[in-house]
Design a protein that fits this description.
Length: 297
């Protein structure tokens, strides 16, 4: 019986943020270029406020410029599009991120399509999604990018021939994750709510990525002996008598760790990688906009 390595996503993300900070230092010193990230928050969603605060803090810590735009919940779509137009033509804002979800009066797709694809550091623009789907290089969504980095850290750079199962087919996690693994020459299966035999699909996977949003759904006996298990799920339990709630992944961690070769915990696995990859994407975007190579660290 395997005793899985518990992957420390927090430490890995810290290392990536340090590398990004070193890249920023070089860009400043050698090219007088300070990468900048503009984050737009509409409304007062508490979780979004926390995300935006930590994105801002980590952007500044990496030596970059952070531009925060907080708009009231009743902001019209037109007003938001006007702000994005301004950011698209602002040479100091190399990356633009609109925090989701947006209020009901705003069409998310219209807003995401308005962002200049060269500044689309979330990688959600249809142009960047198309680039990823067709195998060319563009800005890649942060969470799947972070998952791929973790997988390569564990298995090495050559993933060719590995069987990968991605559970979930959303545009922000499942589909780009599958496209990235395909680009790495894995044999990729994408499962979803209509998949006939999910445990059977999972049992064949050398790489198992769960991005579903259902606490502890993936059981230990679904996992292939020695597989790497990446748990993207973030499921918050209802508050207990003391008002405290717990975060659980999509994978039954205690069961799966008995079988897997390596596994990400929740919290402390994939989560911290998302912001670190956002910072990396901002550096990538800043370099591309200035026709520079990303400094090698
Ligand atoms: P979505 O709700 O957009 O997608 C969920 C996917 O899971 C869908 O494709 C759905 O299938 C599939 N699914 C639902 N139920 C089942 C089931 N019983 N069996 C198999 N597949 C099922 O979620 P997201 O992709 O946005 O997020 C997934 C999880 O990842 C969430 O917990 C979210 O909080 C977390 N997350 C974490 C991030 C991080 O930084 N760590 C970032 C983003 C998300 P179908 O398409 O058929 O409906």
């Amino acid at each position: 019986m395997a005793d899985a390595k518990i992957i420390d996503g927090k430490a890995f993300a810290q290392g990536l943020r340090r590398r990004v900070a070193d890249q920023v230092k070089i860009l400043k010193e050698d090219h007088s270029l300070t990468p900048g990230l503009a984050v737009v928050l509409v409304g007062e969603d508490p979780a979004s406020q926390i995300y935006v605060r930590s994105k801002n803090k980590m952007t500044v810590e990496a030596g970059m410029k952070s531009f925060e735009h907080r708009l009231p919940a009743e902001t019209s779509q037109k007003e938001l599009l006007t702000l994005i137009e301004g950011l698209n033509s602002d040479p100091d804002a190399h990356g633009i991120l609109v925090q989701l979800p947006l209020p009901d009066q705003i069409d998310k797709q219209v807003v995401l399509a308005k962002i200049d694809p060269a500044k689309d550091v979330d990688g959600f623009h249809i142009f960047n999604a198309g680039k990823l789907a067709t195998g060319s290089s563009g800005l890649v969504p942060c969470t799947p990018l972070g998952c791929l980095m973790i997988i390569k850290e564990q298995l090495g750079d050559d993933l060719s021939g590995k069987r990968a199962l991605v559970i979930g087919r959303s545009n922000i996690v499942g589909k780009p994750m599958a496209a990235l693994l395909l680009r790495e020459h894995c044999t990729v299966t994408v499962a979803h709510s209509r998949t006939a035999d999910l445990p059977g699909e999972a049992q064949r996977a050398d790489i198992l990525v769960a991005a579903v949003g259902r606490a502890n759904m993936v059981k230990g006996d679904w996992v292939k002996e020695g597989a790497i298990v990446i748990d993207v799920g973030m499921n918050r339990s209802p508050p207990d008598a003391e008002g405290k709630s717990k975060l659980a992944g999509d994978v039954d961690f205690d069961e799966a760790r008995e079988v897997a070769g390596a596994i990400t915990p929740v919290p402390g696995g994939v989560g911290p990688m998302t912001i670190a990859c956002l910072l990396q994407n901002t550096v990538t975007a800043a370099c591309a906009q200035n026709e520079l190579d990303v400094p090698e660290i």
